[in-house]
Amino acid sequence: MSYITNRKRAEGLGSAKAGTQHFWHQRVTAIALLFLVPMFIFPFAYNLGDGYDAVRAAYAHPINAIVAIAFLATAWLHFFQGIQVVIEDYVHGRMELVLIIAMRLLAALFALVGVFAILKIALGA
């Protein structure tokens, strides 16, 4: 016979004690994107249709390059956080872990390629 209360049995179960932290990380990246999206879109839209030299000159300015890099890194992090929630909710078993790892690698790869492209344009290489 067990003398453990129902509350004691339930403590420690549930979201593995990481649900709130994940929720807040996703909200912080969303708030950061509220500021980064317009700061990225305005120089991008202004130079849309211009030649390579005009775009290179715009992104040679450190502020535009830094904002573009911050936007790409934050956007892909936010993407991964959102897709991780979807995978955790709808996929179970071994495939869940495989998909989370694959999405993490894919998001990191896309962010890295984007940052490399911005640096290449900004530095004129």
Automatic annotation (TrEMBL):
Cofactor names from the entry are: heme
- Span-the-membrane segments of this chain are 28-46, 58-77, 97-123
Q: Which UniProt keywords apply?
A: Electron transport, Heme, Iron, Membrane, Metal-binding, Transmembrane, Transmembrane helix, Transport, Tricarboxylic acid cycle
State the InterPro entries in the record: SQR/QFR_C/D, Succ_DH_anchor, SuccDH_FuR_B_TM-su
Q: An example Gene Ontology cellular component term from the record?
A: membrane
Q: Record keywords: Phosphoprotein included? A: no
Q: What is its main location?
A: membrane
What membrane topology does this protein have?
Multi-pass membrane protein
Q: What is this protein called?
A: Succinate dehydrogenase hydrophobic membrane anchor subunit
Tell me the gene name.
sdhD
